[in-house]
Amino acid sequence: MIVSSFLTQYGLRIRTKEFESVSWDEFKSLIAGIDPETPLGRVVAIRAETDKNVIKNFNKDQKRIYNAWRNRKAETMPPATYEQEMKALEKMFADLCR
Q: What is a single Pfam family found in this protein's UniProt entry (predicted)?
């Protein structure tokens, strides 16, 4: 998803020799700026959704993505950390959508 999102949004092919010169800080900035309409952005938006009415109207694939993320994260981290991580994701996308 990262590869296709970078190509979609930035026109960058990340599996090239030229991309090897991108610093970690620059890469993180590019990831943070991924638009919600890219493949990665759509998945992150589904995972971060909190509106119960929106969730209730997810299609089959959206529900699969949402539930898989919730179940995986819930199994591997304490509840307080889980809530903190979800709030961070929600903030990131709220900032991107401004």
A: Phage_Gp15
